[in-house]
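If you are new to this repository, start here. Below is one unmodified record pulled from the training split, so you can see the exact layout before writing a loader.
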Amino acid sequence: MQGNYQTDQPTGLGHLPALLARLLEQSYRDQRTRSATLCDKNVVHIGTSVDKSKLGAGDWAWGCGYRNLQMVFSTIISRPEFVQPLLSYPLLRPAIIHALHAPSIAIPSIHLWQTVIQDAWNIGFDPDGAAHFSGHLIGKKQWIGTTEVYVALSRLGLKCQIIDFPKPSAPNGQHIKLIQWVENYFNSTSNLTDNNSTIKPKIEITNRFPLYFQHDGHSRTIIGIEINSDCQTQLLILDPAKKIAAPLKKVCEQMSASHESSHPQTDRPLHQPGGGESSLLDRYPSDSLLRSTKPLAKGTRNSKPTELDLRTHPKLLGAHRLTLKELSKKKQYQILCVLDQVPKPADSDPDQHKLHTIRSLRIL
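And here is the target side for that same chain:
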């Protein structure tokens, strides 16, 4: 990451759900996976920065909360029906308009999220959280948690829910109820890859938003659920502190380059019919990528297509799996989910004051 990692618009890696689905399909054929359900295909992996600059050695030690917030938001801003209400929030509008006319996604920087959170505090959101940071967050190198993510998204008019898992729900420190909750979340939606199908596919990509996932000292993004051949359920995650494996990264980058070259951007006015919100969606590949039988990304003018070796699925998928045993290393977890409800314009929602006090659902 170059320049100012706090104020620059983040750059991320797209297309991962599509590629992970391909690997999971191979795992299913190899009888290692029974089924898997993934989140919205448009989620972008955004990692913490380790680059040294005048600001110090990046945000790797404190930025995971912001990076997971950015990952969750990458799917929200990909929905055309969400764009216009989000434009009503003045602090966010410049970033969205800039992205509509550039080969990028309108994901706010760390600095902009700090500004949004501080603005929310100023109008009464989460007084306890505001007091913890002395009402000032902009420019600070301090980690944020679930409540700050809730405040940021709620200030934009998005409806969110926090789910607390304060202790293990089974012997040996296992978080069975956490796994069950996530499984129900991803499986309570219909298949998007073939809406006419009456048979649920074994490997499915849905329109569910990813989940913000917090525990003591770190946070990650849950992008799906998998049941292995032993009928053990495990989470599928993106971790901002971990780099994407080189083979996946290379294919993702070629897919992005190929898509951008076949969808050139034009400077169309925001409200022009056929432009604006729809041009934002044009950044993403169609579902045909998922149905393709060829494990290839198209080559660009200066490079040959990269082949993804599906036989390496145990190693490539392993970096994105979180098992019950691994979950038992921590006693407490929190999940934040964004409800799939189009937000009302941020400053015209008469019910927004009800969100000032943060409440959570506690599952024991």
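Two things worth knowing about this chain: The CA atoms of residues 15 and 208 lie 15 Å apart. The first helix runs from residue 16 to 29.
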